[in-house]
Amino acid sequence: MGGTIDIAGVEIDMMLVLLFLGVLGTLLLLVFALGGDGFGSRKRLNERLARVKAADSLPAVGTRAADIKLNTDYSSIRSLDRLLRRFLPRPALLRQRLAQAGWSISLGTYVLINLLLLVLTAVAVWQFFRLPIVVPILAGLAVGVGLPHMVVGIFISRRVNKFIAIFPQAIDLIVRGLKSGLPVTESIRTVAEEMPAPVGTEFELVADAVKFGKTLDEALWTAAKRIDTPEFRFFIIALSIQQETGGNLAETLENLSDILRKRKQMRLKVKAMSSEAKASAMIIGSLPFIMFTLIYLINPRYLSTLWVDPRGIMAVVVGLTLIGLGVGVMYKMVKFEI
Questions:
Q1: Cα(280)–Cα(276) distance, integer angstroms
Q2: Which among 137, 189, 194, 205 has the fewest CB atoms less than 10 Å away?
Q3: What DSSP string describes 280-304?
Q4: How far apart are CA 15 and CA 306, in angstroms?
Q5: Where among 138, 154, 170 does a domain terminate?
């Protein structure tokens, strides 16, 4: 299976080499994460004092510019930050996805998690299955890159659904504030104080942005990048049109709240009608893996052909591809845009 290599007459186990590289890489990542560029507490203290002195010697505008630059760093570790700036593709999109998920971690932390999962998966696949070296590497890449991406997507979906569920109540609160004579910005501040996350969190960011000099329209469209949902964009468009043309904003937002509630009811009806097809897709998609696990526990040799014989490996690849296509088609059939 190519598990050893011969160098100068000495056989070296590739598993030991891979395990050594994985442990070494993990230790280096931990060293970078814990130590950064300097390890001594005295050196870190001197760096902090130098930053404080530099901030005190600059005017207010300079300090604000420095803070903005700090917030756009990829990582608090300087060496890792330089590597990410040079090799990480599309960092703005990744940072936006983390913000949409409501995570406050840096890009450096996210990349370290990816690398750790990659190494652990590659070592585990090699240890348990003894496949050619290319297969563990590909499995590590799939898990190290795909699994965190999928988890972030799940958190984004949950956060958006939670936002949509309580957003009409936030609009009602703004309407009551407008009817009582409060301006729009103060009504938004009230929503930030009274509503739970994520609605309260997002409206608090909008209110803070307006407080620091942004227009309400700019602050709302910035929030729309984090809350990528049509309901929130409807709200922004309603406010923008009212600012340009005038009119009764309270009545407009009241109608919008009613429309959003009807959209929610329609979405629940569609979910109920498509639940049977979703259950069928889950059962059909999981049945081959359940049977594989049961047969492997009863007689492992019976299935060893699937990863020993090249024809078995090809059959597994083709089977997984067909299962993925079938599940994808069923998912598209039961997914409706409202």
A1: 6
A2: 194
A3: HHHHHHHHHHHHHHHHHHH-HHHHT
A4: 21
A5: 154
**Token pair 């330089």: residue:** 82
Same domain membership, residue 139 and residue 15:
yes
pTM for the model stands at 0.66
Distance CA 49, CA 60 (A): 19
For residue 232, give the CATH number of its domain.
1.20.81.30
148 shares a domain with 62: yes
Structural domain that includes position 255 = 158-269
> Is the domain of 145 the same as that of 190?
no
Q: What residue has token string 């442990």?
A: 23
> What confidence tens digit (pLDDT) does each residue in 43-101 have?
555 565 455 445 444 444 343 333 434 345 566 666 666 777 777 778 888 888 998 99
Residues 115 and 100 in one domain: yes
Structure token digits, residue 168? 């009409």
Beta bridge partners of 11: 6
Q: What is the pLDDT of residues 249-275, one digit of tens each?
A: 899 999 999 999 998 898 888 888 888
DSSP secondary structure, 112-181, as one string? HHHHHHHHHHHHHHHHHH---THHHHHHHHIIIIIHHHHHHHHHHHHHHHHHHHHHHHHHHHHHHHHHTT
The Cα 71–Cα 127 span in angstroms is 41
